[in-house]
Amino acid sequence: MTRKRDSPWLPKSVIALRHYSSDTFRRDLVAGITVGLVALPLAMAFAIASGLSPQQGIYCAVVTGFVISALGGSMVQIGGPTGAFVVVISGIVAQYGIGGLYVCTLMAGVMLIVMGLTGTGSAVRFIPRPIVIGFTNGIALLIASTQIRDFLGVQMPSNPSAFLDRLVMIGHYLPTVSIPAVTLAAASLATILIVNRYVKVVPGTVVALVFGTLAAYLLHLPVDTIGSRFGGVPSGLPHISIPPMEPGLLLKLISPAVTVAMLGAIESLMSAVVADRMTGDRHNPNVELIAQGIANVISPMFGGLPATGAIARTATNVRSGGRTPIAGIIHAVTLVVILLVGAPLAAKIPLAVLAAILMIVAANMGEWAEIRPLLRQSYTDRAVWAVTLFLTVFADLTVAVEVGMVLAALLFIRRVSETTTVSRVTDDYVRESKAHVLQDKPIPDDMAIFRIHGPFLFGSTDQLTRLFDHVESMPAIVAFRLRNMTALDATGLKALEDAADLLKRSGRHALFCGAREQPAQLMRASGFADHIGPDNMCPNIDAALMRAEWIRTQRAIKAG
Fold it and tell me: Do residues 286 and 146 share a domain?
């Protein structure tokens, strides 16, 4: 008897428990404890960088980590506070206070739930890639700048929220730099880098946290610690408290809440996509957004921060053996045990060590490798990236995303309008077109041809992503016919690169043929042919079929 198809609203935890085993539990247990240890210093560091107390970060990691794993749409997603929110949170706290942050987080949670229930969560994928890279670069720079104070041990009365003001004040108080703090921070930074590269069994952040804290305590180093600045971390979870809702404040917080919701949706779905690539699973974006929303509604009731899917912790979970949401639940339980048993020890953690950890986080989240390919693309994509980066650093994230989206939308209209042409049909045109015609050409059984028709810009690339949900059913050779693809941008180009990479990882061969002038020019400028292999970029379908025949012959020779 055939089992009924699962409800599209079913959390992955329920699906995973149907075939759960003791072996899977052992893997999840090890992964959950490992991620819990990794999450502890990150949660405290994110809270401190946001201008809050360290325990608020831990409360957020416990509550949201449990909810997101239990109710989410990803098998291995780990939820909690992340670096992307640091800049937004500090700005909200500076303007509206902690009470305003709690209300804003709750509002953002409701928005995320609505996005998931209405299926509009996929709209976050329509944000152009230059905007995503621009504000990711900007956030990374801002996070790193907030950690200079503690990394150097500079004695400042405050850490200004504005980027330039912060740098000016650090420069003014630079003579107060602490040699013990710099030494400890630099040693912690080196430890993380070395351990992460050469020792795979334990995360570098955990090693740096333990040895950095021991060094500061045993050597009696004169450095700031969590205890000296915040009075330590209280044991246990706080009491539930619903934030007071003031009508006037709600209206003021709509814009920041939209920013928190959009940023949370983008990062959580990006993290889920990374997890899918690592595990071969397919997440449910709408269920994931509903879980993210519920987690953000509950988090402020426990004194927590906004939360989303954490890419680094999710990757750590997968590498440590985590295979189901139970690992994420165990990660939350691990943090509770630490709160109940080891909270007094947290007071000994030096802020210089946490600053080194966040410097690594900023370096890893910046997507710096994406800048060079982006600079080789069209000036419009470069302009969107540069404006978004500038506004993220020198204005705020809300303004950066809003201006970036308006600029991208105007450029989208311009690109689409340029695809309209009026030209006379000549004998040369008819003769050249025959090489692109498919009707008179047989397609081999081991080859599939997909055509992209119309502008392939941000907002339309999801159609290609859905095409490869079941890549294992694809034949050995897959050709993309670009003859009718009238326009291409950075987001569309990235989608084509991802498709080629996915096919290559699965042992298949990707060919691209017949690109028109504007897409071909962008591909040449960005080095697309070098990425996929120059021979796999064909001028027309005739050449693609000949290339496929050569590939088939080479495989037969190797097999024989």
Answer: yes
Q: What is the pLDDT of residue 1?
A: 35
Report how far residue 304's alpha carbon sits from residue 344's, in angstroms, rounded to the nearest whole number: 20
Whether residue 351 sits in one domain with residue 378: no
> Which amino acid, one-letter code, is at 278?
M
What digits encode the pLDDT tens for the residues 332-372?
999 999 888 888 888 899 999 999 998 988 888 777 888 88
Helix (H) or strand (E) holding 418: helix 397-418
Note whether 295 and 378 are same-domain residues: no
Cα 526 from Cα 379, distance rounded (Å): 12
Q: What's the pLDDT at 176?
A: 94
How far apart CA 201 and CA 86 sit, in angstroms, is: 29
Question: In whole angstroms, what is the distance from residue 481 CA to residue 542 CA?
Answer: 11
Number of domains in the chain: 3
Q: Which residues contact 344 (CB under 8 A, 6 or more apart)?
A: 232, 233, 235
| Residue linked to tokens 């009026």 | 422
- Counting Cα atoms < 13 Å in the Cβ hemisphere of 145 gives 22
In this structure, are 446 and 376 located in the same domain? no
Instruction: Give the tens place of pLDDT for each residue, 255-280.
Output: 899 889 988 888 888 788 778 877 87
